[in-house]
Write a structure and sequence with these properties.
By secondary structure, the protein is mainly α. It is about 65% helix and about 0% strand. It is built from six helices and no strands.
Length: about 100
């Protein structure tokens, strides 16, 4: 479970939002490439549509189990989803010391 926002510095909060946004963008793109609606993806992944909507809006962290379920539903490997998120150079810069 991620640390509560109240425990993070402003920079950590900004990095969290940037990272969630990059993963959200990758998730939306993958879902659309698969030709699925949020409801269809949710059904295939065994989740609620509202959970998918929160992930796609970058308002929630994706737990490991959710990533695997979503990727299975999208017929892709988790590493492919991560690679798409990592394509955003701003996000990879957050990993630099």
């Amino acid at each position: 479970m991620p640390a509560p926002d109240s425990r993070l510095t402003q920079q950590q909060l900004e990095e969290r939002q940037m990272r969630r946004g990059a993963l959200a963008t990758a998730l939306v793109a993958a879902r659309k490439r698969a030709g699925l609606t949020q409801t269809e993806l949710a059904q295939r992944a065994g989740m609620s549509r509202s959970a998918i909507a929160r992930f796609e809006a970058g308002r929630a962290s994706l737990a490991n189990d959710f990533i695997w379920s979503i990727c299975k539903a999208l017929d892709m490997k988790p590493s492919e989803l991560w690679a798409q998120a990592e394509a955003d150079q701003r996000v990879t810069q957050t990993l630099e010391p």
